[in-house]
Amino acid sequence: MTLLDRVWVAAESATGGPSSATLELVSGARGLGKVVELFTWGDEATVASSADVLGGYGVTRVYSVGDIGPALPGPRVASGMAGLIWAGDSPDVVLVGATYDGRDVAGRLSAKLDRPTITNVVGLAEAEGPRLVAEHAIFGGAQSATSQFTGPGPGIFVVRDKTFEARPTEVSGVPVSVVPVEVAELGRTSAAQVVSRHVETQEGPKLDEATVVVSGGRGLGSPERYALVEELAALLHGAPGATRAIVDAGWVAYSHQVGQTGKTVRPTVYIACGISGATQHMVGMKGARHVIAINTDRDAPIFGIADLGVVGDCGVVLPRLIESLRARG
Amino acid sequence: MKVAVCAKQIPDQANPAKLDPLNRTLDRSDRLILDEADSYGVEVALRLVEQAGGGDVTLVSMAPRGETGGLRTALAMGAAGALLVSDDDLGGSDALGTAKVLAAAIRSISPSPDLVLTATESTDGYTGTVPAQLAELLDLPSITFAKRIELEGGGTSIRVWRQTESGHDELCCTLPALVSVTAGVVEPRYPSYRAIVAAKAKPITQLSLAELGISPDAVGAAGARQVVTGVVAAEARQGGEVIVDSGDAHERIADLLQQLKVI
Ligand SMILES: Cc1cc2nc3c(=O)[nH]c(=O)nc-3n(C[C@H](O)[C@H](O)[C@H](O)COP(=O)(O)OP(=O)(O)OC[C@H]3O[C@@H](n4cnc5c(N)ncnc54)[C@H](O)[C@@H]3O)c2cc1C
Ligand SMILES: Nc1ncnc2c1ncn2[C@@H]1O[C@H](COP(=O)(O)O)[C@@H](O)[C@H]1O
């Protein structure tokens, strides 16, 4: 298969270096194109230190639209990319992570360039052309479709996290050039300003990196019962997760959500407590090595993918399980 | 204050399309309903108008066959009127095509809205890109994934709580602007019987592509410039053992966890 000449990856902001989503994307991009370049923002020092890390992942050039201050990245990054593309300096494809800021970049770039997007991508491969074939989940993850762009590029792929594995290259010491990008006057599109940021401090491993994830759903019965989920997760050195139903109900913060609009997790063990197993939830956790489910309803879809299913009340089983694990030390 | 709310009308997800047992064709008799995801935008819009002390909510929708079922629900909730773009050439539209049509419909509203609301993603299509595409086409600032919106500066700007990966950001933005709202931000009101009856008399203006000045090849399947080359059932995981708890199921779980060496 022929590789594409050039792939652009839109980065996610991350204080303290490129985010895991960015490293995953550039690692995947390396298998698709001869040249992988990154688009990002930030002050010079941050971008320069990011670039050092990215060099180890095969990125040869980092474009930066500079410090964006309190603005949102979407309009500025999309405008920077479009400017280069209009000037004839175009990649074959643009890969964007399926994150909040990523979707803003993808949507704005698509409208600016009049180029389509393929979203919810969970796999990318070379086809004849050279062109890419994207695998993406449809019907809430019940089916998987493959799609291709048919018109002139660059096509924009919005890729879900965990689609690729972050892998550094074997070669080291490849220099990365940082290229500042001029951005045209953004007018009204950049009028939104962040006035304050609230970061929820979280103990224990990150949800998308934990080897054990214990998630709770509406079957817990009350927000207070979520403490059982947290306790079990802590006991197993894991992270607590949640369904959208209880996030929407305000029981727990969104950062706990697993599924189509939440995180994708691939732990060794996933324990689902009071979760029905809607396709939109399962799409985010079916990559788990082992699944254990506790649900009062013998017909709950979650049992269809559980290695061990317990038909029972999590209000009863969880406290006993916690006690038993404590006893086992 | 004038608010335009994008309201997608979709098949009832609890009652998916089925084959007609008699002639084996797809049963299309089921009406489209308001995408629940958009009912939050409608509610937020109605509350903002109340808070502003005046104005109205206009719905904007693109749907096949002149469908109005979902729009009637949102009108019963309190929206003043609706614009519906329905055209045979729109079948197979992708997200960008949809955004072009919605943008043209919103531009036809006079005076132009102070705020455009969408959901973060539709229940059936869930590309999640329409909001940012729409904002770009309308030359508006956008704040996506809003959990809460408040009016400020005597109704000239908004303060928005935006969900982030690690918490939330608070943003300010002068109007006009586009905001996409997450599900669960507010409890959508349940229309009364009287409101449902009254909604039948509210105006729904149907627009064709020609009336919006959009060329048929820019939208629909022709404008999508992407093809689906295959569809397969998602890889199924095998279910394992299911046991009924008779007081010792927790021990079975603990044994398995020990066997898997996570404790
Ligand atoms: C566009 C879109 C995106 C979505 N994205 C996501 C997403 O990212 N993540 C996500 O999770 N969902 C998502 N959803 C929602 C999804 O469709 C489901 O509504 C949701 O996952 C259901 O959550 P739940 O399992 O907690 O609740 P329910 O479906 O209500 O299930 C509760 C379960 O608890 C069981 N139960 C009741 N009492 C007990 C008890 N005492 N002990 C044990 N079990 C009990 C019940 O039998 C039931 O199976 C999305 C939906 C849409 C339309
Ligand atoms: N056909 C449509 N009619 C009205 N609004 C729509 C339509 N398609 C998308 N939208 C709006 O855009 C949001 C995001 O859609 P999507 O990008 O398809 O996930 C939806 O939740 C709606 O608010």
List keywords for this structure.
heterodimer; A: 329 residues; alpha/beta; nine-stranded mixed β-sheet; five-stranded parallel β-sheet; 26% helix; elongated; B: 263 residues; two-stranded antiparallel ribbon; 8 helices; 28% helix; globular; binds flavin-adenine dinucleotide; binds adenosine monophosphate
Description:
The complex is a heterodimer of chains A (329) and B (263). Helices cover 26% and strands 28% of the residues of chain A. By secondary structure, chain A is an alpha/beta fold. In chain A, helix 3 (73-86) packs parallel to helix 4 (100-113) and helix 5 runs parallel beside helix 8 (314-328). The longest helix of chain A has 15 residues, at 314-328. The radius of gyration of chain A is 22 Å and the shape is elongated. Chain B contains eight helices and 13 strands. Chain B has helices at residues 36-52, 69-77, 95-107, 130-137, 193-199, 209-212, 220-224, 249-259, and strands spanning 2-6, 9-10, 33-34, 56-62, 81-85, 115-119, 142-152, 157-164, 167-174, 177-181, 204-207, 226-233, 241-244. The mean pLDDT of chain B is 92. Chain B is globular. The chains are: A alpha/beta (329), B alpha/beta (263). Chains A and B meet through helix 3, helix 4, strand 5, strand 6 and strand 7 of A and helix 3, helix 4, strand 7, strand 8 and strand 9 of B. Flavin-adenine dinucleotide (FAD) sits between chains A (217-219, 221, 243-246, 257-262, 274-276, 278, 280-281, 284, 294-297, 300, 313-315) and B (121, 123, 126).
